[in-house]
Amino acid sequence: MKIYILDGGPRKDGNTAAMCESFARGAAEAGAESERVRLFDYSYTGCRSCFACKARGGPSYGRCGWRDGIYELLDSVAHADGVVFASPVYFGTITPQLHAFIERLFFPFVVYDKKYSVIAPKRPETAVIYTMNVKEPVLTKDYIGEANSGPLGFFERYVTRVYKRPERICAFNTYQFSDYGKFVADGWDEREKAEWRERELPRELREAFEAGKRMAEKIKKG
Ligand SMILES: Cc1cc2nc3c(=O)[nH]c(=O)nc-3n(C[C@H](O)[C@H](O)[C@H](O)COP(=O)(O)O)c2cc1C
């Protein structure tokens, strides 16, 4: 049982990292090995549109043929039992690093036939982890959107086409800096944020832990 937790955030010790670690602890409790991959540690680009992955009879058919820093990693993730897509929300959606990784992972799996058939070697369990400044109503209305029409809604629809439907785990109203006094950020009420962090963050981390456990249990059941 192997779960890859793809962390698309730049901060080693930020909110997204904390949620990923909690998810990993939950998965471990239920017997799954997981690996958190910090995408910012890798050197790569998004899809180069070389189409090696779709070349008839080609050696890279169905997998990304572009040899940069994630060439091997893509193969490992493609054979995982579970994949977690984690990101701080930037401009209403996932970070460019996570987006670029998904282009490279998913595009080779989608065949340019009439049905857009999917030829991924496995169909793993999935989860998405988002952390963000806003609270749930903005996520639901603007980022997920009605009938999944928002940027994150579209992203989750795509994950569901290729893999299994993701479970969504979120941390809202997050702390961006340890001392709000040092930054021009008067739009945020630090006291309210501090209260939220004390009251809600432990629950959000627990939800990530439970989601990790659930994913491992689902993998075990097959
Ligand atoms: C470039 C940038 C863009 C952001 N855009 C949004 C946004 O559109 N909506 C939002 O709620 N938060 C936004 N945020 C806030 C982060 O999503 C939030 O602080 C997140 O929890 C940071 O995660 P981290 O601690 O793992 O870095 C943005 C932050 C940055 C740096």
Describe the protein's architecture and organization:
The protein has 222 residues and is an alpha/beta fold. 39% of the residues lie in helices and 14% in strands. It contains 7 helices and 5 strands. It has helices at 15-29, 71-78, 96-106, 136-144, 151-162, 190-199, 201-221; strands spanning 2-7, 33-38, 82-88, 125-131, 167-171. A 5-stranded parallel β-sheet has the order 2-1-3-4-5, with helices on one face. The longest helix is centred in the last third of the chain and has 21 residues, at 201-221. The mean pLDDT is 97. Bound molecules: flavin mononucleotide. Residues 1-107 form the NADPH-dependent FMN reductase-like domain.
Sum up the structure in keywords.
222 residues; alpha/beta; Rossmann fold; 5-stranded parallel beta sheet; 7 helices; globular; binds flavin mononucleotide
Overall pLDDT: 97
Low-confidence stretches: none
**Proportion in helices:** 25-40%
CATH architecture group name: 3-Layer(aba) Sandwich
Count of runs of 4 or more consecutive helical residues: 7
Q: State the end-to-end distance.
A: 10 Å
Radius of gyration: 18 Å
In order across it, which strands form the biggest sheet?
2-1-3-4-5
CATH superfamily label: Flavodoxin domain
Task: Identify the overall geometry.
Answer: globular
* Bound ligands: flavin mononucleotide
- The structural class is alpha/beta
The number of domains is: 1
Please state roughly what percent of the residues sit in beta strands, choosing from under 5%, 5-15%, 15-25%, 25-35%, 35-45% or over 45%: 5-15%
CATH class, named Alpha Beta
Question: Major beta sheet, specifics?
Answer: 5 strands, parallel
SSE topology string: EHEHEHEHHEHH
Tell me how many strands there are.
5
Organism: Cloacibacillus porcorum
Protein name: NADPH-dependent FMN reductase-like domain-containing protein
InterPro entries: Flavoprotein-like_sf, FMN_Rdtase-like_dom, ISF_SsuE-like
Pfam families: FMN_red (PF03358)
